[in-house]
Amino acid sequence: MGKLAILSGGGALPVMIAQAHPEAVRIVFEGVAHEMPEPVELHSIAKMGAIWQALKDAGVDRVVFAGGLGRPALNPADMDAGMMSIAPRLLTAMQQGDDALLRLIIAVFEEQGFAVVGAHEVLPDLCAPEGIFAGPEPDDVALNDAEKAKEVLDALAPVDVGQGAIVAAGLCLGIETLQGTDALLGFVAQTPDRLRRGKGVLVKAPKAGQDLRVDMPAIGPETVRNAAAAGLAGIVVSAGNVVLIDQPALKEALDETGLFLLGQVI
């Protein structure tokens, strides 16, 4: 078997994978903030052909995408032949939404002979288990809010909107969009009391049909603290399909805030 390569964006997840797989090739990108420890290889996203060649030269046969990258601004003048060869497909996919773009990324790496694996495959203990992870048992109100939030996410899945929704006493306070979960929680924190009843629950789950190899939802300690600041009672995640970042710190944050974290089959 060849080597694993970590194509790293920001956040703690790429670091966790690197710590578990110290032999892995670590790729970071120009203009993208990262926490990946040395040694790293710095590449331009615009020069995809150079990335593929570097991976092949290093004996890589598997790649894992981890961390946030966003959508880089690409200048055709900066592209190498490899990127130019996929640029028309890339532009089309970008207009169709995140799912289409991520499916294309998987496809072009597989066309180059690389197996694309998910973070949950290289770190199987990362995923949320079924049942209470930490915190108090949710009451019936919280469980009903979670069910309503799941209905919201199911309704939005066909239009590729987001992976999270917040419901309080049956009222939807917000949905996750391109800005992410923390932005959603910040928005809900600003909701005036006259517009909400009860505390509410955040539900986080993959979109229907989402390929978890390149876009797995994640919950970390900061998410818990932001949920507390938004006045929520707890968080419900899709068991086996959501990454729990820095689990000791996550449990500590749940203990500090009094929130629950529950894994359910969603």
Automatic annotation (TrEMBL):
Q: Which InterPro entries match?
A: LpxI (IPR053174), LpxI_C (IPR010415), LpxI_C_sf (IPR043167), LpxI_N (IPR041255)
Where the record annotates domain LpxI C-terminal, the positions are 129-261
* Signal peptide feature range: none
Superkingdom of origin: Bacteria
Q: Where is the LpxI N-terminal domain?
A: 3-126
Designated name of the protein: Phosphatidate cytidylyltransferase
What taxonomic lineage is listed for the species of origin?
Answer: Bacteria, Pseudomonadati, Pseudomonadota, Alphaproteobacteria, Rhodobacterales
